[in-house]
Write a structure and sequence with these properties.
mainly alpha, 2 strands, about 50% helix, extended
C-alpha cells in the first residue's frame, strides 16, 4: 500500500498489520523473558492464532478460555516430543 496515495483500500488497512506487530512486540518484550531465535516461528504462530481468533464467526469477542478450548480441539492426535522441540531428533541419549 502506497501511503502517499492511501492508508485504506477496501478491507485492507495499514493499522491491521501495525496492530499485530505491536501486540507481538509487547508479548515478546513483556510476557516472554528470553526468546531464542530457533523458536521465534512458534511465538509468531501463537500470536497469529491469538490475533486471528479474537472473535467468533458471529463477531463476538472470544474469552481466553474459549480460545484455549479452540486451540486444544485442534491439537488432538498431534504429538511434539522433547527431542523434536529441542532439535535433537535422532541423537542418542547420553548414558551416565
Amino acid at each position: 500500500m502506497d501511503h502517499a496515495i492511501e492508508y485504506v483500500n477496501g478491507n485492507v488497512h495499514t493499522n491491521t498489520v501495525e496492530n499485530f506487530w505491536s501486540l507481538l512486540k509487547r508479548g515478546l518484550n513483556g510476557t516472554y523473558i528470553s526468546v531464542e531465535p530457533f523458536h521465534l516461528f512458534r511465538y509468531l504462530d501463537e500470536q497469529a492464532f491469538r490475533y486471528n481468533h479474537r472473535k467468533d464467526n458471529n463477531g463476538d469477542v472470544l474469552s481466553d478460555s474459549e480460545r484455549f478450548a479452540l486451540a486444544v480441539s485442534q491439537i488432538t492426535s498431534k504429538r511434539l516430543t522433547y527431542a523434536e522441540l529441542t532439535g535433537k531428533v535422532g541423537e542418542k541419549p547420553a548414558v551416565n
